[in-house]
């Protein structure tokens, strides 16, 4: 599980927003080269088995990355057949990366299968937009071709043929967390499911951070959290993932990439990236789970535009917490548990990165919240409903979904938040 080689790539800065990724913000990065992708790239990697401390860099060429024994190299024709020639009625979503189509393959041979038979897959097709897109595509192949965990989406294979760059994933039938929290139509998520999603995504991040050769995810947000049929959460889209600091280094210096509203303030300001940057992003998503509000709402002005700025004053006050709780919960949540989760979110959002908890500590705290339910399904103390307050939030009401480009994640159709470019 952790004994893998993996790499870092993507670097960029300046802050010209460009819609490229998921729910409520703009993607941050710098200018993107439009030149065609080179035939060979070398990405700095780190091997858990290359030394006693697992910190020696092991450069991996593009050829070495694509030779992963864990991935199937598909031909473009195979994926055309699997998706019925990328027909519009096979389209699941669209984003800055490109388009995502539903397809079918034989679960044993992985050959294209008739619609409705075999294994369902999601095929992400890259827009031919040059070198930077190719680098992100290759980074995703590099990481997901080697890292395997129940809370990371499974990459089945890829296609690199001519100008075509595609990725083939397991299909996630429940779509993204963003869909369930912010789009009208889906049944509102219960408190138990929200807690389950928080725990699953925390496990995924904790796994990445605790590897000998640490991985910083760098784009943790609601649209990148995919849900299987049982609402198990899996992290997707590793195009911005980066190897963590090694030796006595405290951070990785890189151009700023991520999504407005989710990216940690010190990282946006300085380009200094640490695992605590991911912890901040987790705090934002935990706040979204509690409130049912987007990280950034461009239809609002002032303090209400930013979920963090608006909600922070209420998170540490038991008597005022109800003001930020999602009204779609109908008051059906444990008051004590909600306050504990809110306190945890506040710790993750600490403006001082060093004072934020580690993801393993966040995970342990969330599992403690779930533990009483597991031990005693009929525990009235944990399961009792909180009366729905008549008073509404003094400032913020339910926001309508933002008009953003639909996402290109391996899942049923959903919308995306712009990344910071």
From TrEMBL:
Role according to the record: Required for pathogen-associated molecular pattern (PAMP, e.g. chitin and flg22)-triggered immunity (PTI) involving reactive oxygen species (ROS) accumulation and triggering plant defense, including defense-related gene expression (e.g. PR1 and LOX). Ensures specific recognition of the EPD1 effector of Verticillium dahliae, resulting in a hypersensitive response known as effector-triggered immunity (ETI), characterized by the activation of programmed cell death to limit infection by the pathogen.
One Gene Ontology term of the molecular function aspect: protein serine/threonine kinase activity
Name of the top EC class for this enzyme: transferase
Domain Protein kinase: 86-369
Species of provenance: Gossypium hirsutum (Upland cotton)
EC number from the UniProt entry: 2.7.11.1
Annotated Low complexity bias: 21-47
The entry's keywords: ATP-binding, Cell membrane, Hypersensitive response elicitation, Kinase, Membrane, Nucleotide-binding, Phosphoprotein, Plant defense, Serine/threonine-protein kinase, Transferase
Binding residue positions for ATP: 125
The protein's name in its UniProt record: non-specific serine/threonine protein kinase
CDD domains found in the cross-reference section: STKc_IRAK
Feature: compositional bias, Polar residues: 1-20
